[in-house]
Amino acid sequence: MKGKLTLAQIRVILILVAVMLIVLTYFLVYQTNMDKAADFDKRTADTNERVAYLESLQPKVTDLEVFTSLYVDDIEDFIQSFPVKITQQKSVYLIYRLMINTGIDIESITPGEQMPFYYKGQITDGNAVSEEKEEETLSEITVVDMDQMIGSNATYTINFSGTTKQVYKALDWITENKEKLSVGDVNLAFDRSSGKLAGSIGINFYSMLGNGVPYKEVDISEFTLGVDNVFGDFSKDKE
Which of the residues 3, 77, 85, 161 has the least number of beta carbons within 10 Å of its own beta carbon? Predict the structure, then answer.
């Protein structure tokens, strides 16, 4: 009959449909899954490589833990050596002692802003850190873990003059002081009129809040107060 498919034609159509289904299954299902399987194999290989690397570090970690344990007391002593806070009273007094012990002539002192250098277990430049909230929960006699301590520093810039020998002595006095001090920026020039070096030095003062060290007021009984010098306006009660 016209319009009816023959058995052979039906078989051809069924074969074509089957081939199309196979092709579609290959590209839409099999190929997609193969790509996922290849990606999974790669990630598995990378993970196994990472695991192998970490396992290779385990003996080193164990050795490091043993090595570190030998210095626990030294680390604790170092932390305890920091004052609990920086006060203007103590900072200015130490600068006064610097002048007395080295013979340099100090013309001015510029106190710097106190900034954190150690915060939540990380060394920081202090630019984006606010310690006010943490200081509310810590006191000068609070003992906390290192990742809770707040280490701060303040740079006091002094303008002074002195002989070369006095300047060297001043630098040694700062770096070798039992207090936590360090030398910051140094700007010096030779003054022909006096035959001395003149300029400025930044002195960094450090403290560590949360190390359990109580604050001790510095003894300034030998401090010459009320005289006509750079320390004349210094007040014992000012911090």
Answer: 3
How many C-alpha atoms does 212 have within 13 Å on its Cβ side?
A: 9
Q: Which residues pair with 158 in a beta bridge?
A: 109, 201
Q: How many CB atoms lie within 10 A of CB 170?
A: 23
pTM assigned to the model: 0.68
Cα–Cα distance, 34 to 26 (Å, whole number) = 10
Tokens (6 digits) for 53: 């690397």
Amino acid at 158: I
Q: Are 107 and 95 in contact (CB under 8 A)?
A: no
Asked if 72 and 203 count as a contact pair (C-beta separation under 8 A), the reply is no
CA–CA distance, 175 with 112 (Å, rounded to integer) = 19
Strands (E) across the chain are located at 105-110, 115-119, 122-123, 150-162, 181-191, 196-209
Q: Quote the CA–CA distance of 202 and 158 in Å, as a whole number.
A: 6
Element (H, E) at 104: none
Write down the pLDDT at residue 126.
62
